[in-house]
Amino acid sequence: MIKGLKICGISDPKTLNYILNHNQRPTMIGFITNYKKSKRFIEYKKLKNLINVDKKNVSFVSVLVNPDDKLLGKIKNLNFDYYQLYDVNSERTREIKLKYKIKIISAITVSCKNDVIKYKDYLGISDIILFDSKGYHKSESFDHSLLHEVPHKMNKMIAGNIQIDDIPKFKNKDFIIDLSGAIEDENGKKDINKINKLLNLFKRYET
């Protein structure tokens, strides 16, 4: 069964409030903290105000690409439960986790089987392993069949251009599902109607 749902790339109060007040809330909400190439990136001051809310048992995730100590020091007291790290090796990941006392989602970007096995470097360090495409903010896909040999007992998440109607395909998988582009309109803004459809569908397949 599906282990959870993460809605990523939230950047405005209206959408965040809608999700937090929905009767079928997701497991996690992600905020793009330092990747300025993304249309979903949020400047620090706006981010600080945005997430200073009652999370209602939803975990808040700071999505970070190779963050430096200056940035990590700046955000350390913000209302986050996890740091989702891209382009960060296992040694640096351990250092960040211990220094900032934060749960870690380590992102493995996948285009071939050799990429997948990199998860082994993060076992015992990261709380969740995320398998994503190489596209970062571009919502690109990758071959999910490459993940067949990933251990069932491992806490893991999957992303990469997953669509709302793909949710039933994961009903016998033990992944947290991560969506962003699939719940946006043609202008790249989060669509309340699509979010509502996603949340109601997800609850039918959640563990």
Report on this model:
- This protein is globular.
- It has helices at residues 13-20, 44-50, 69-75, 90-100, 113-116, 192-205; strands at residues 4-8, 28-32, 59-65, 82-86, 103-109, 128-132, 156-158, 176-179.
- The mean pLDDT is 93.
- 25% of the residues lie in helices and 20% in strands.
- The longest helix is centred in the C-terminal third of the chain and has 14 residues, at 192-205.
- It has six helices and eight strands.
- An eight-stranded parallel beta barrel has the order 1-2-3-4-5-6-7-8.
- With 207 residues, the protein is α/β, with parallel strands linked by helices.
- The protein has a single domain, classed as Alpha-Beta Barrel (TIM Barrel).
Protein traits:
TIM Barrel; 8 strands; alpha/beta
For the secondary structure, the number of strands is 8
The CATH class, by name, is: Alpha Beta
Architecture per CATH nomenclature, i.e. the level-2 architecture: Alpha-Beta Barrel
Oligomer kind: single chain
